[in-house]
Amino acid sequence: MQRKAKTQGSQRRAWFNPRSLHMVIFVSVAIGVIVTEAVLLLPFSMVWQTQNIEQAADEVRAAFVHATDPATFPSVDDVTRTADRFMRDGLIIGASVLDASGEQLSTVGDRPFLTLDMVRRGGLQTWESADGAALDLYIDPSETGMANPLVARLAMAPIDAATHDRIVKTALAILAIVLGSSMVSVIALNYWIVKPMRKLQGAIMAAVDNPDVADQFKTGLKRRDELGSISRSLDLLFTAVSLLHQEELATLHKQNEESLIGVLQYSGDGKLQAANPAALDMLGFETETELRKADQHMVIPKNGSTSRKTFLDIEVDTDSLVPVELLGRVRQIAAHVQHIPVRRRDGTVARHFITLIELDRMSRELQSLQERVKKADAKLSKVSAREQETRRVLESCLCLLDTGSEKPRVEPAVMPDRIVNEWYKDAAEANLVSGKLEHGVLPQLEGDPARIREVFRQALLVVYAKTTIERPTMGMEADMPDEKTARFIIRDISKDRIGGGRQVEKSVDWRLPLAALQVALGKCGGQIVDMVPEGAPPRLALTLKASKVQPFDINEEDLAMAG
Fold it and tell me: Which residue among 325, 357, 389 closes a domain?
């Protein structure tokens, strides 16, 4: 009942709200009435005044016509007496009897201002006094049968009163018609627009307060106008909001169940509503029912006080954690507590959330998580290394499948250092090898650059595949036994540089790149001259055709530098 009264009160306030739709309608109606009466009554009042003046003049003329008998040929005294009688009856307030030249023969009451000369020269039949209180009326002898012309003075007060009365009656009629139509319009607008809009507003506010069940507040208006379109759009929106909120609540509920942070939920009046498994474990309870029955004074703040408090006694602060001691059923632990109230729109508290964080447990879980992350990184690194090894094995397969049908492009000077450095850099970025490829001065070669590139890439892969060290370091030496031959020696120097390393099993079978190397050497006219057996540090020597153009001679000092 209180909520219903509050709703009715809010509706009454909305009715008198100057910004409400009702007030806009009333103001519009009032302005319409004022404009309508101003537009209609102002010109019509002038017309009605003229009509009333003509009617009064006709009545006076008719009165003199009926009061005189043309057969008797009334004298000036008879006309004067008739005018005096009409003045006593209130028909006129004065009159003047004139002769043919315009001279006044007799006057009764107020003397009129209108003269016979003004009538003859100006064609005036009536004349209104300057103060607007009287009207002079010329009565021609031909109209009355009298021998003399007559000017009668009429009071304007009855004429103005008749005009005013007609204006008031017309204004009231217009006002009644406008107000009646306005009230009908207001009632129609109230039922056709205002009430549906209030229904939409109420549905929106209800969905805002309860987004998880927003689909229960569908308006369901079947209209085909703009409000119906808005209603259907809102219904779709409510359905989407409800689904999204329910999915979010389900996700949050799952996260809450799996979280290491304890969460307690209390109602606005302080009753325990829910507790997640982490909170029950911290406090030493198995079920929420046991926690509800237990003494809720489980908190001792670390501020020098020894008094036990409830969780709701914790200071409300959404930005910081309060260090406390939790007295559970089984143990006493150090924790941090945060009190977060959720308020309604009117400021009252709807529910309380208490978060419990056990720092020691969080530290242990963090260390465990870090260890799992390290293991996952190592596993990922191993998988990535195998992927890179597989890519290079595929390159060996392509080398074996190449028939060499294309005509080779022979160049007089090919620099092998760019080829080997490129392969080693890519392998280092893929975490297959470490450091840089150590080599001295490498002689230039003669032949097809693409085939020479295949030779060195397969030779480096053979040495990498034969070593059992994870991320080995490799070196390369070169010399020229004669002017036409260049010899290259590739070996694993990990023991010399890093003292060995962790032993791993490679996913590459060294025999596959060795076969590809032999095919590539056959295309270039080279050969393998030395390869140590398994068990010893990998070492491979091969020869290729040397270029006739060498930037400088290779001597013993160069070999010593390369070694």
Answer: 357
Looking at the fold, whether 556 and 469 belong to one and the same domain comes out as yes
- 160 and 219 together in one domain: no
**CATH code of the domain containing 404:** 3.30.565.10
Neighbouring C-beta atoms of residue 126, cutoff 10 Å:
15
Q: How many residues does the chain have?
A: 563
| Whether residues 200 and 310 fall in one domain | no
Backbone CA torsion sign across 355, 360, 365, 366? positive
Is residue 364 situated within a structural domain? no
d(CA 279, CA 272): 12
Greatest Cα pair distance in the chain: 173
Partnered with residue 113 across adjacent β-strands are none
What's the pLDDT tens digit per position in 413-442? 889 999 999 999 999 988 888 888 988 888
Check whether 280 has a pLDDT greater than 80: yes
Question: CB of 275 within 8 A of CB of 265?
Answer: yes
Residue type at 159 in one-letter notation: I
Q: If residue 476 lies in a helix (H) or strand (E), which one and from where to where?
A: strand 474-482
pLDDT in tens, 99-126: 777 777 788 877 888 777 777 776 556 7
Output the pTM of the full model: 0.41
pLDDT digits (tens, 9 = 90+) for 296-314: 787 877 766 667 888 877 7
Q: With CA atoms as reference, report the closest residue to 539 among 486, 495, 506.
A: 495
Domain tally, the chain: 4
